[in-house]
Design goal:
By secondary structure, the protein is mainly α. The chain is about 45% helix and about 10% strand. It has a 3-stranded antiparallel sheet, with no helix packed on it. The chain is elongated, with a radius of gyration of 19 Å. It starts with a helix and ends with a strand.
Length: about 160
């Protein structure tokens, strides 16, 4: 489903766009207007629209929910909520810290691309590391519409400019 959203009716993934503006040099730039799933999940470069943003965030939240459910399932019956801590979570499965590191990277890359899609710098995405503010930032970015037309980060939502070679 995510691939369908990212896909376009173009046969060629690379297109030239004429760019100009206060932060863009007036020149022809090569753009990838239908990048793949790897780009969506890993790369912080480019722009992403609201629909793939929400879909990937829900995927992240589902994976976190499954991991927490596995953790609760591995606990002895006599353990209460008050006895639980981060150390018991990490010691229950050695892969949990790695999983959460990877999920944090995916979320950061996604939030950076969403910031760039609305026309602000990706450094704003660092706000997701501030407690309480992170929830507000994620919700705000999910509801703000994309910037119309090309900006300095990509020609369209769900795209990015290629480097000049």
């Amino acid at each position: 489903m995510i691939k369908r959203i990212l896909a376009t009716n173009c046969k060629d993934r690379t297109h030239s766009f004429k760019t100009s503006g206060p932060f863009m040099a007036s020149s022809d730039q090569q753009a990838n207007i239908s990048p793949g799933l790897f780009w969506l999940l890993v790369s912080p470069i480019g722009r992403v629209a609201r629909e793939p943003y929400w879909l990937v965030l829900f995927l992240i939240w589902i994976v976190i929910g499954v991991a927490i459910n596995m953790w609760f399932g591995s606990l002895p019956d006599d353990v209460t909520i008050d006895d639980l801590g981060m150390d018991s979570f990490v010691s229950s499965n050695a892969l949990f810290p790695i999983l959460f590191f990877v999920l944090q990277w995916v979320e950061l890359a996604l939030v950076i691309k969403r910031c760039q899609d609305i026309g602000i710098t990706g450094f704003t995405a660092l706000l997701i590391f501030v407690p309480v503010v992170n929830i507000l930032v994620v919700l705000f970015l999910g509801f703000v519409p994309s910037q119309q037309g090309p900006n300095r980060f990509g020609p369209l939502p769900n795209s990015y400019y290629r480097r000049k070679t």
